[in-house]
Amino acid sequence: MSEVPGNDLLIRGGHVVTYDPVIGDLPQGDVLVRDGRIAEVGPGLAGRAPGARVVDARGRLVIPGLVDTHRHVWQGALGGHTGRVSLMGYSNAVLGGLAPHYTPDDLYAGTLWGALQALDAGITTIADWSHNLTTPAHADANVRGLRDAGIRALFLYGGPGEHGPGFFGLPAPAHPDDARRVQAEHFPYGAGGRLRMGLALRGPAFTTREATERDFAFARELGLPVSVHVGMAGFPGSVSVLDELGLLGPDVNHVHGNQLSEREFDLVAASGGSLSVTPSVDMLMALGTYPATGEALSRGIPLGLGVDTTTGTGTDLFSEMRIALAAERSRANAGAVGRGESVAEVALDQRDLLRTATLGGARVWHLDDEIGSLTPGKRADITVVDLRAPHLDGYGDPVTTVVMGAGPADVETVVVGGEIVKAGGALVPAVADRARDLMHASRGRLRTLTADAREHTAS
């Protein structure tokens, strides 16, 4: 999907947080969008765009579109499926229990609905770690779901391909070669456009050293960035192994990182790699004591936030910002608190987390020259949050208020590449209504299949 040319769009009169070092914040400013890009940011721009479509942003916060750097989007129809579970419980219930039943139609419905969940929450860019691609038709359905939702996305082609359960672990077959076809058919122009491609690799945590070397060689042959899970409790040493194999680099996105050693954090920093933390899943599924937020920021590692799986968490990054902030302050002050000392002041504030969820996330995927700040010339990915509700109409900094209190229902307007995909607090009905019908049909079929399987096992 190309960016939207045509009539100008003027977002007028809002409190604009640009994360552009020259422009800064505008307590009352306008954002002018032209041909899918930000044309100007400043006060009183109405005279610059006669005939423009106007979004009234008075009493609203205007921010760069949020960037989710790690999510399994195909699970969009599975909300609430995993509650009191660890990583292993999730793997058994979702990857072992439901994923094998997914048809390409189910995958399309789940991906479309999952992408719309993100857009509804003000997330304009998503890294889709897709690991339920059992056939080429599944891969095509996943790409089509992202495209039809209208979100900006990195489609990270994972497994298992035709290999089934043996893909993760042993016998450790090669990464599906179908990724080569998908790149040629769906991404013929390389890194341009709203959808881009990478590979979701198993890494040392979930396969052998030999398979890891083959997977990375395949990705680099195709010229694609990669993402791997590292530093989870019970799966130590992944970054050290990647270093021993000579595989670290700026094209590697490391996910989670809770249990990385000091040396491993330093290795990631030295290699130019990035880190995605998923605070809710990191803590709820016991992947580690704390998310790796502070360890990454202290070393200058490009850091982004992710929802990961929506099967037992929320769908938005506001929640992830809050949890990341609380967890990092707890980690940083644990020593003093343990000694019974009073802490004079705390570090890392709400603006740091909003930056991580916008410009930081863009930097993770090397998109910061295109998105992540409201800078003239960048693509027009914009989120507008309504501040007029009682829980957000506060005394102080509106960024603090939004990070600590906002949710998807407070997101009033979402713009991706100059196209309005959410207006007046609602997603575009033609897409959302169709997606809901498809999701309900898929969910009903999956419930019937799993109920039949449980009944058969019991008998």
Textual characterization of the structure:
The C terminus is likely disordered. 53% of the residues are buried. Helices cover 38% and strands 21% of the residues. It has two domains: 113 residues, Urease, subunit C, domain 1, CATH 2.30.40; 298 residues, TIM Barrel (Alpha-Beta Barrel), CATH 3.20.20.140. With 459 residues, the chain is of the alpha/beta class. It starts with 8 loop residues before the first strand and ends with a helix. It contains 14 helices and 17 strands. Helix 2 packs across helix 14.
Structure keywords:
single chain, 459 residues, alpha/beta, Urease, subunit C, domain 1, TIM Barrel, 2 domains, nine-stranded mixed beta sheet, eight-stranded parallel beta sheet, 14 helices, 17 strands, 21% strand, globular, disordered C terminus
Radius of gyration: 22 Å
Number of helices: 14
Quaternary arrangement of the chains shown? Answer: single chain
The portion of residues assigned to helices is 25-40%
User: Beta-sheet strand percentage?
Assistant: 15-25%
Low-confidence stretches: 455-459
- The structural class is alpha/beta
Shape, principal axes of CA atoms: globular
CATH top level of the largest domain is Alpha Beta
Domains counted in the coordinates: how many? 2
Q: Report the sheet with the most strands, covering strand number, pairing sense and barrel closure.
A: 9 strands, mixed
Average pLDDT number: 94
What's the CATH architecture name of the largest domain? Alpha-Beta Barrel
Number of strands: 17
Question: What's the N-to-C terminus distance?
Answer: 50 Å
**What is the CATH topology classification name of the largest domain?**
TIM Barrel
Name given to the CATH homologous superfamily of the largest domain: Metal-dependent hydrolases
